[in-house]
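4.2 Preliminary Data

To establish feasibility before requesting continued support, the project team ran the inverse folding procedure on a target of 168 residues. The structure was first converted into the token representation described in Section 3, and no sequence information of any kind was made available to the design step. The complete token record follows.
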């Protein structure tokens, strides 16, 4: 099995568009298992495949009611707005107020290739939208206003320096 690690900002993979999964095979199952291990290890509640370096449209989430795995997820309906603070495993110590849809209808495949359609609200709706953003190369820092950007500038600079040091 391939080795998987959590990808941190500013790694370029976090800004790329993930590709649709064409075949749910052993590699996909291994990737999802590794994603679960990483998400739980870092005490996250959601993770997208690009966050472990793979540009595949796969997300997982667990807000306390069990693990949700969605392959090729898409939001087909949305309703209402809510603003709340979010963090991200790929952006440690960064928090941003993000406005998201309060309720969504999401469609995707499970690990058996079965089509699922789920009505989500509250925290799970927020997490799924956050993870789908990752599949499209969007990060929570993209939602930050000017004041939030100024407050997080130092933390982002530390992450950028750490990334450059690791690249040497």
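Position-by-position output of the design step:
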């Amino acid at each position: 099995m391939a080795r998987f690690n959590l990808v941190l900002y500013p790694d370029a993979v976090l800004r790329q568009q993930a590709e649709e999964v064409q075949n749910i095979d052993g590699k996909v199952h291994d990737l999802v298992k590794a994603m679960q291990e990483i998400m739980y290890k870092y005490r996250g509640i959601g993770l997208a495949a690009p966050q472990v370096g793979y540009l595949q449209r796969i997300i997982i989430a667990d807000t306390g009611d069990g693990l949700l795995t969605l392959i090729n997820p898409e939001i087909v309906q949305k309703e209402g707005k809510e603003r709340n603070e979010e963090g991200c495993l790929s952006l440690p110590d960064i928090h941003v107020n993000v406005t998201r849809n309060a309720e969504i209808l999401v469609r995707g495949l499970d690990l058996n290739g079965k089509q699922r359609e789920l009505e989500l609200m509250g925290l799970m709706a927020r997490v799924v939208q956050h993870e789908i953003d990752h599949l499209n190369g969007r990060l929570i820092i993209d939602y930050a206003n000017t004041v939030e950007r100024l407050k997080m500038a130092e933390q982002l600079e530390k992450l950028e320096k750490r990334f450059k040091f690791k690249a040497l």
